[in-house]
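Protocol step 4 of 5: obtain the predicted structure for the target chain.
Materials: sequence only (see below). No template structures provided, no constraints applied. The aim of this step is simply to have a reference model before the mutagenesis design in step 5. Sequence pasted as it appears in the construct record:
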Amino acid sequence: MKRAVLLLILFSSFRGVVAADGELRPASDLPYRQTEAAPPSDSELKSELEAALAKQDWQNMPELLKQYRSRFLADQVFADYAEARWRSSQGEYMQAQALYRRVLAQRPDWQEARAATINNLSAARSAPRAGDFGKRLQASDVWQLPVSLSHVRNNQGYIPRDRKTLLAGDRYPDKNNDALRYNLGAEHDFSLKGNHRLRLGLTSGGTHYWDYYDRGTRSVRLAAGYRSSAGKQSWSFTPYTEQSWLGSEKYTLNTGASAAYNNKFNDNWRVSLSASSVNRSYNNPDHAKYYDGNINSISGTAEWRPNSAWAISAGADYRADLTRNETRASDRTVFRTGISRQFESGIKAGASVQYGRREFSHSEPLYGIGRKDNEYNASASLSYQPRRWKGVAPKIDYRYSKIDSNVDSSSREQSQWFMSLEKKF
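Step 4 output (structure tokens):
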């Protein structure tokens, strides 16, 4: 009997507690004590911001931005984009445009930001509350002045298929040299009507070799293009002309046009298609009789973005060189893929590989065989946005290319390192 009483008391201790008045109270009747919730992580805060942007929840946006910007590993570029969207919704178009410029200066390939910039400008032109900023936009759009500067470490050599034939004194030595690559220009968008725009652009660029001035290249390009957008789709058509120099002498004159189509199916998938046709004329008569002609090309790319940090792409290109001399005419097919990652710390890394097959239409006069090239290319890039100085961010690129040809003198290998600085005013 005593054992049964002890078991009953022990069992009751698991189902309740003794109250102050001595009565046994079931555990289910105890008052609920709320525990303090753990603060959201950086990634959770970013997901909340993305959800607020998708739902256009502008009421909670300021508080979310305040919390997110206070985090050490926050993606400040994304925060600028979110704040720009919010300010545009509040009619603060000039402040929003300043933020969009800062975003695109660091991520020029971010299509959502470009589309949002255009929408902000369109709203500022038509909204009465835009004030002086809207009036200035109605009178004239803003000129953009892209500038880039790169230091190039170049290592190039010709590779005979039988490496044993490469002896001292052969005419295919490796070349190691440094160069300075530069690009600068001026671009201007004009609004025509609705989503129709006209763009004018004048750009100049080139490569200057420290020890080989006669190998330096320069070019000047003038383009006037039309662009139309509707929802998640856009079209463009751009005629252009380009003059290039090799050393101090004119080299080629290229005149042609390109067309492009882009479609963003949803937040994860987008497709881009392009085609171009160029007429190339060489200034040197000895080159002209062989290489003058048309270059026609088409390209297609599909991109998958599982989230705002990752981007994976794959595509294919086809190019036909229709030269005056049929022995120099060729067809090239290229398959490529790439991946990029934007880290919350501000580091952006990317890599790509591609394989191409080039076949010439007729046999080489010297060798008596049809030339066929296997082309291999790989590239990698790394940038760190928090190291920006007045909108200028450093970037390191590496590129490797190799041509394996059945014609010994056409095989070659090249590797390049770039240290770049880019700025858009």
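Step 4 remarks: Helices lie at 2-13, 42-55, 61-69, 76-89, 93-106, 111-126, 131-139, 285-291. Residues 143-424 form a domain with the Porin fold (CATH 2.40.160.40).
Proceed to step 5.
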